[in-house]
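#data-curation
PF: Archiving a pair of folding outputs for the training set. Convention for this channel: one message per protein, sequence first, structure tokens after, nothing in between. First:
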Amino acid sequence: MSVDFYFELLSFVLSVVFFKHLKNTTIVLFTPFLFLTVLIEFIGWCYHFFEANYKNYWLFNFFTTIELIFYAYLFSLNFKHIILKKIATYFIPLLMLISILNYTYLQGKEQFHTYTLLFGSFFMVIFCCVYLYELIITDTHYETLFKKPFFWICIGILLFYLGSVIINSLFDYMLLNNLLSRGNNLYLLITRALNILLYSSFSISFILCNRNKKNYYSPL
């Protein structure tokens, strides 16, 4: 198992431990989502361990789409403006359509779906920036931003997908040129570092939910 898997596992464990503090908020959705994340990663590891030459791109292509849909749904719940809520909601069927078209006509099942991920990453970055803008203009007490659980979730998603836009736009180049860093695939190293940032931000959010007496995020 890679190091980033343990950050994912820690994040899931924290979501379970602090579940009673999450259950009246949108953040409670992270418990089943992170369970699925850990499960997919474990299955992927098993494929790699027992069938080293077997390509399991299909598994992560499926999960990437689910992941983007989940985040878009979260933003649709946490946006304040009704138009933004609708945009995030309409993004979900659009992403599903793009994913199906990519699978059927473009990258198929034998490649990692970088086109779908690039498309989704672009929107995730936009959603994060818009949410942070909404948060800032509606709360003049900037020192409280760091105490808001969904702020940390948003920051984690923003950093992760900003990095994803860059590395996935270069994915084919890295693959063809076998770019390495200290004996490891450079793409994997960067992806794992981004995962560590993402799941660390989730963990901070769950800890804040436990500490805060007042909810700073939208209820379900």
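PF: Second:
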Amino acid sequence: MKTYLPKVKEIKRSWYEADASKFTLGRLASKVASILRGKHKVTFTPHMDVGDFVVVKNAEKIMVTGRKLEQKKYHTFSGYHGGIRSKTLKERLEREPEKVIRDTVYNMVDANRLRKAILRRLKVVKGDTHQFQIDKEIS
């Protein structure tokens, strides 16, 4: 039997919704990364983009365990001397909870040419409402 490779026209994309208030940060990101990549499908192929869309709502209510809110730091560097800036996870969640989830999922998706296309299908929403039509829920 020959190996089946899906054609681009045959790829069907569904919309999934995840409520961030029900998950810890890492567990949510790993589930979302798997669905964005398409690993839950029978037609998964590593070198093709066969994943689905994911909408994450309630981004500001994401949970973390332990003392990560105070101890986990995010660093940015401008390239100049003295240009390193650090923020704790707590500071970042207060200002930009969408970016925290997006960056965590970004780091869980394989670093290859498909990463940019895969992350375009991730939608992170701060509140409980959004304009997307949802097919399935992530539990």
